[in-house]
Amino acid sequence: PCWQSPPPSWYKVNVDAAVSSTEDRAGIGVLVCNSTGEVMAASICTVIFSRDIEFVEAVAVHNGLQLVMDIGLAPAIIESDSFNVVNLINNKIHSRCEVGWLISDVQEVLSSSESSFQVKFAPRSCNEVAHHLSKLALCNSMEKVWLEEVPTEIAAYVCKDKSL
């Protein structure tokens, strides 16, 4: 499987986290595209890695949701390659203590928003650009947001997804 565009008038938000256990940091990557595959926004940031990968994957979903809300892009489908986090958010499995409060926060934002948002699972092969953004975040110490563009290091992956 590969990246699929969202329905017309919807946005696709791909999110991912990458960890550097030697540095106790995690990189978060977010990519927002419209239904024709054009990049609307991208962001990277780093967070402390507390040895809970599901927590940083939930942070990625939270950051993606926050980004599209901040720039007013809705409705949106948020995709993560963390099966457990997606199932936690969609109430298909019960939350664990470490990640529970963050999942509850995401659920509250989803339910209180006037816009439509969905959170879905996407395998890594459908989430390549977000994965590379999260790796890029590990090389940077500051949060960065791009509007209608991506870092040059990521552009080739965006083009590859659009051509599939």
TrEMBL record:
It comes from the Eukaryota. Residues 14-136 form the RNase H type-1 domain. GO terms for molecular function: nucleic acid binding; RNA-DNA hybrid ribonuclease activity. It holds the Pfam family RVT_3. PANTHER family: BNAC02G40300D PROTEIN, POLYNUCLEOTIDYL TRANSFERASE, RIBONUCLEASE H-LIKE SUPERFAMILY PROTEIN. This is RNase H type-1 domain-containing protein. It comes from Citrus clementina. The lineage of its organism: Eukaryota, Viridiplantae, Streptophyta, Embryophyta, Tracheophyta.
